[in-house]
Amino acid sequence: MLRFLYEDPWERLRKLRKLVPNIPFQMLLRSTNGVAYSSLPDNALFHFVKLAKDTGVDIFRVFDSLNDLENLKIGIDAVHAAGGLVEGAVMYTGDMLNPRSKYDLKYYMGVVDCLVEYGSHVIAVKSMSGVMKPAAGRALVRAIRTKYPEMPIHMHTHDTNGAGVATMLACVEEGADIVDTAVDSLSGATSQPAASAMVVALENSGFDSRLSLHQLQVIDAYWAQLRLMYAGFDADLRSPDPTVYRHEIPGGQYSNLIFQARQNGLGNQWAETLKAYEDANHLLGDIIKATPTSKAVGDLAQFMVDRKLSAVDIQQRASTLDFPKSVVEYFEGLMGRPFDGFPEPLRTHVLRGQRDVVKKRPGLTMDSVDFDRVRRHIAAMFPGSPVTEYDVASYVMFPQVYMEFRQARRNFGDLTALRTPDFLSPPEIGQEVRLPKGGDRDVIAEMVAIRPLESATGMRDVLFRLNGEFCSVAVRDVKATPRRKLPKADVHAEGEVAAPMAGAVVRVIAQDGQTVKVGQTLLTVGAMKMEVNVSSPVSGRIDTIAAVAGDAVDKGDLLVRIAPYAVNGR
């Protein structure tokens, strides 16, 4: 919401809680990550969970992308401290019934035992990739129900393979109390199984849901219309994908990965991306894939396709490659620890001795957040605007995204007043946009004309009527403004550092004249939430910094020029 809709999620939660006072609300809590992509200091996690509970969240599904037990415990402790209901979640991957799988029934029951010991009120099993087969679901639910007969069991899967309904039915028959579904128009493929399909399948079976099929269809009619408005973002998956049993891409990541691949110029190499994802997973240790570990696998897969690297290439050249930031953070231990350890020597080669390995739970090694300092920082950036505890929590989770949200609010006001079509698409000439003002009268804006670009300034005059009164405003045409063109790096010059991918320069760390060593980070390039730290290929002195933060770059553009030192001196 903050990133794409410029909407405050806390405000939406308050509105929903007021409109729906009698139904429990549930949220996902990524153990020590909260809702961020890497670990938070403990006091930040407890602060966030307390605010979420006070604002209207009742049930917290606490999970860890690696089933890291220490991380799970601190997440559960945070929910208990806030007075919430804990749904401790087991992340499922692979084929539990395959005798070669390291993720067998004994492994999963070990995680369940710990979740119960830590004080979970409900046990959830999440098959994020949808790879849980009916027989495996049946066996796992049976084992949990036998050992913990009074414990509510909540099952979750994705329908990427088309077998979601069959798996959920098998789980219900073995004693699962809750299964996740989606309204029909938003179901299937990488989403959950269809709600109406489950309702009909359970009729007269002894497990009747007692849900009204007619009322579900009424609700679905609304969402079917709404989905049409977002058709431009639809991944357009038209059939089940049985290859998910090999690549194991989580349902929540599958469609995002398609858009990322297109944005990064890899849209015509989707088959290669699927294969690279499978290879990347095994390179990282055949891990459980959910946010944030799934991002590390996906980033590595696209990294491999973009650079035409095989799994063997990665293993042989790891000590010389600039890996995506998420991959480095995974190997540092910032996302938790796989139960059977990190793969070596790949981990050592990726970190190259320049990164500290987190050997304890990350929160134990991180400084506590100074909330007053964060509040003062936000107030200094946006003087005159009140800064609440919720602003502080949002900033701690997503500093850059939160600042972009506040800047958008300062520039444009509260955009939730816009209808969805008006938010997603610019108005046509002559089109009217109605804005609710409150009280008896709405504001009606009519687009009249857009004047030619002022080439010297990059500005255009936009002419419109506001409740019949003629107005104009000068706006910067970002698309028409020519971007700064960077020269290409000379591939034969050892000191010229090139952009590893198309994207934007996120931050520049290096300084003119600075002395750098081989492997030292110079700057960061990002695209579609994937960031790559670009390091120095040689030891030497920085001669030129060609790029600045915010520059759009193409693959191969010159970023930094370094004057290399001679082998035996300067």
TrEMBL record:
PANTHER family: PYRUVATE CARBOXYLASE, PYRUVATE CARBOXYLASE, MITOCHONDRIAL. Pyruvate carboxylase catalyzes a 2-step reaction, involving the ATP-dependent carboxylation of the covalently attached biotin in the first step and the transfer of the carboxyl group to pyruvate in the second. Residues 1-217 form the Pyruvate carboxyltransferase domain. It catalyses: hydrogencarbonate + pyruvate + ATP = oxaloacetate + ADP + phosphate + H(+). Residues 488-563 form the Lipoyl-binding domain. One of its GO terms (biological process) is gluconeogenesis. Pathway: Carbohydrate biosynthesis; gluconeogenesis. PROSITE patterns: BIOTIN (PS00188), BIOTINYL_LIPOYL (PS50968), PYR_CT (PS50991). It holds the Pfam family Biotin_lipoyl. CDD domains: biotinyl_domain, DRE_TIM_PC_TC_5S. Keywords: Biotin, Gluconeogenesis. This is Conserved carboxylase domain-containing protein. InterPro entries: Aldolase_TIM, Biotin_BS, Biotin_lipoyl, Carboxylase_cons_dom, PCB-like, PYR_CT, Single_hybrid_motif. It comes from Hirsutella rhossiliensis. GO terms for molecular function: pyruvate carboxylase activity. GO terms for cellular component: cytoplasm.
